[in-house]
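Intended use. Records like the one below are meant for learning the mapping from a protein sequence to its folded structure. Do not use them to infer anything beyond what is encoded.
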Amino acid sequence: MNYVLLFGMPGGGELFFIVLIIIMLFGSKKIPELARGLGKGMREIKNATGDIQREIKEGARDINTVKDSVDVEKQVQDIIKEDKEEKREKEATENQSTSTTEPDKGEAIKEKPTPETVQRRSPYSKEEPQNPTENS
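Structure written out for the chain above:
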């Protein structure tokens, strides 16, 4: 029934026949030399694949160190903080200049509300509707 699974898999009799043909072609003295050569070739292939994998890992490590050194989110937050500080300093200098030119009328100085920052969404988070409706 499962002939597809067994296709290409030699059985006991077939293996015996293959070994017999190899001994007849190469002789019993040449078989160990062929096996050594085959083993050396397999070892070289294994070493080559190990070297390739090591180079790939080193390249990925270099890319990750560069990526870690450039923290875009932190840079954006620093820029936002600097902008807020500059605005506060500018408002403070404007308030000082207006308070020295105009007498204090007892009015409280109103601070302008700071604009809300837009936060980035993760591409893996569930998307929420922009205009949510209330279900009453």
